[in-house]
Design goal:
The complex is a heterodimer of chains A (246) and B (205). Chain A is mainly beta. Chain A is 4% helix and 24% strand. The model of chain A has no long low-confidence stretch (mean pLDDT 94). In chain B, strands 1, 2, 3, 4, 5, 6, 7, 8 and 9 form a 9-stranded mixed β-sheet that branches. Classes of the chains: A mainly beta (246), B mainly beta (205).
Chain lengths: 246, 205
């Protein structure tokens, strides 16, 4: 079966021990926003196996270029120029084609373009902070941006978010829906962050740290970081129980 | 040593954070000119879509009773005939005038969300029994470490709800009403409680 044939199997159960739990007191906002009762476990139905798809015609020319998609003509965003690229895979290691990847981030000074943001670092008039891309037949994607700055946030009195890019990913089924964050190799703030710390295992955190990818760097232009994203895999439907009469 | 299974691990989730709107509803936040429109905004139906037009509205409420003003909700549902507009739908072709998916940020002042959609048809459970009409909800926000899945069922579908195989799996029947939206005119109200006495049933699916 190639990547283009729609698959209809149920997704593998989510490994909840690998994922952050809902209630994580060091990240204070989670305390009142975390369900406290047990989740109801269900095998997937069609409501979870299916999902919306987005066509490549959705994507505008500059959607994956955050350096220019909000900038005035002839200008560009300030900051360290980087390329972020990788593949969207599923747990079987298969590339997920046609996945919509949406990203958002702070500017080089750590300031978000948002009404509720009050950090004193300045806005960059040429930086909006969002982009999107759809993966190719192999599940590959890439976008160009500036490296976001770290920023302070009200949790503890002196908590700083490591530099990060937010990712929202649509796979092929609604049960694969995922929002996560990408961190940068070597950032000492990663290991001090209460939001990163909601993830129980060190090796799981490392799955969100993008390495510098010198091989894919564009000389005299932009450094590259590689970030692969893994969505839930799904069963083959070959031996599934069939409805009566099928 | 047996062979390795060679399965990868799903990427860990991280909170959508307080600025999810920048990425998912930038026009709503005044970041214009990047995307023509915010993805998933507006009604789920086109002019020619079949089915009854309805509004679904409500709030996401935290453990102190306060509505979340920075949440993002996505819904996914079948068309009026019970078919999903998805390549993984093998039972037939869904209504091309109905997308089945939408996204809404809760209001920054009131916390209210609103979707304009059609009432979905019934979709079979894996064993063939019909499920009651329902809409899948996926909720993310600052303070929510991994997206929450739940379902809206319709208060005026009592007979279908009574035989729904998913609702039947809820051990504590007193919690079933947390998934039922109440109808007033063309509007169904569905509040989601993250905690407390009326905590909504969330799914691990």
């Amino acid at each position: 079966m190639d990547n283009k044939s729609p698959e209809t199997g149920a997704f593998f159960p989510r490994d909840r021990a690998w994922q952050p739990p809902a209630y994580t007191p060091p990240y204070k906002t989670s305390v009142l926003r975390s369900p406290q009762k047990a989740l109801l476990s269900l095998n997937n139905t069609l409501s979870e196996i299916t999902g919306p798809v987005f066509g490549h015609d959705l994507i505008g020319e500059l959607d994956n270029d955050l350096i220019h998609n909000f900038a005035k003509a002839g200008e560009s965003a300030i900051g360290e120029r980087i390329i972020v690229h990788g593949r969207v895979l599923d747990e079987r290691g298969k590339g997920v084609s046609g996945a919509l990847v949406e990203v958002w981030q702070a500017n080089a000074g750590g300031r978000y373009r948002h009404k509720n943001e009050s950090y004193l670092a300045p806005l960059d008039p040429n930086f909006g902070g969002c982009g999107r891309v759809i993966t190719d037949d192999d599940g590959a994607y890439r976008f160009r941006t500036i490296k976001p700055g770290p920023y302070p946030w009200p949790n503890g009195v002196n908590d700083w978010r490591p530099s990060h890019i937010h990712f929202s990913i649509f796979g092929h089924g609604f049960a694969q829906r995922l929002i996560t964050q990408m961190y940068f190799e070597g950032d000492p703030l990663i290991w001090k962050c209460p939001i990163v710390g909601t993830i129980p295992e060190k090796s799981a955190i490392e799955q969100l740290i993008a390495p510098l990818d010198l091989a894919n760097t564009i000389p005299m232009d932009a450094r590259a970081y590689k970030f692969d994203i893994v969505l839930r895999g799904r069963r083959s439907t070959l031996f599934e129980n069939r409805m009566e009469g099928n | 040593m047996p062979q390795a299974l060679n399965l990868m691990k799903e990427s860990p989730s991280q909170t959508a954070g307080p600025y999810v709107h920048i990425g998912c509803t930038p026009n709503l936040m005044g970041i214009g000119g990047i995307y023509d429109t915010d993805l998933g905004s507006g009604p789920l139906y086109g002019e020619k879509a079949k089915g009854e037009r309805i509004t679904v509205a409500g709030k996401i409420i935290d453990g102190s009773g306060t509505p979340l003003k920075d949440a993002l909700i996505e819904i996914w549902q079948a068309d009026a005939a019970g078919l999903y507009n998805s390549p993984s739908e093998t039972r037939g072709s869904a209504d091309p005038a109905f997308s089945g998916w939408a996204r809404c940020a809760t209001d920054l002042e009131t916390g209210q969300y609103t979707f304009r959609t059609i009432k979905p048809g019934r979709v079979p459970f894996p064993d063939g029994r019909p499920q009651a009409p329902h809409i899948t909800f996926w909720i993310v926000a600052r303070g929510i470490n991994i997206g929450l899945h739940t379902r809206l069922y319709f208060g005026d579908e009592e007979a279908a709800n009574a035989e729904d195989p998913v609702l039947a799996r809820i051990e504590h029947k007193v919690r079933v009403p947390t998934l039922i939206a109440h109808r007033d005119g063309d509007t169904y109200t569905f509040d989601v409680h993250l905690q407390g006495e009326h905590e909504t049933v969330f799914f691990d699916i």
